[in-house]
Design a protein that fits this description.
This protein is an alpha+beta fold. It is 27% helix and 31% strand.
Length: 179
């Protein structure tokens, strides 16, 4: 699968992925929020591949964190990288499974019938996309507060000017599910 790279806006690609999930969030009585740091640097990216990677991470969070109710997506920059963070409030991941969940078809041992971390293909694809961008994907579990899990996709930022400065954008897409 050949990627085609061009300087691009990580926040925009991630925003499209979040948009896709806002409808599903409503149906499933979940919420997904997005926060994008202002003055984000650009990165060399295949926007469609990055959008697909983000979709896979959000999908994974939705499957796994049903009871957590909300998924938080943020885009920021640190140490010459642009970071996409997808955080859920589910049961988290066994530390021993941390590295292995990116291999194909590996399922975490906390994955009971109700909490399935997917077939592993989604995460293997995310890893492939991250690495083809010269980046990495890692997992933090539990995240601060002792619950849940955050996947962090890190891409090298392009040196020089950030994208058109913008206000920090935050969209909260809430489910309207009737109790």
């Amino acid at each position: 699968s050949a990627y085609s790279f061009a300087p691009g806006d990580v926040g925009e690609a991630v925003g499209r992925a979040v948009e896709i999930f806002s409808h599903r969030a409503e149906r499933e009585a979940m919420s997904v929020s997005l926060a994008i740091a202002p003055d984000l640097p650009r990165a060399m990216l295949d926007a469609r591949a990055l959008e697909l990677a983000t979709i896979n991470l959000i999908d994974n969070a939705f499957k796994y964190a049903k009871d957590g109710g909300k998924v938080e997506v943020s885009v920021g920059a640190a140490r010459g990288h642009v970071l996409v963070r997808v955080k859920d409030h589910g049961p988290g991941i066994d530390p021993e499974d941390g590295e292995r969940i990116f291999e194909r078809f590996v399922r975490g041992k906390n994955a009971g019938e109700t909490q399935v971390r997917g077939s592993g293909i989604g995460l293997a694809l995310v890893k492939h996309i991250a690495e083809s961008h010269g980046g990495t994907v890692s997992v933090e579990s539990p995240v601060a507060g002792g619950k849940g899990c955050a996947f962090v996709l890190s891409l090298p930022a392009l040196a020089g000017e950030p994208t058109t400065p913008r206000d920090a954008r935050a969209t909260e897409l809430h489910s309207q599910a009737a109790e």
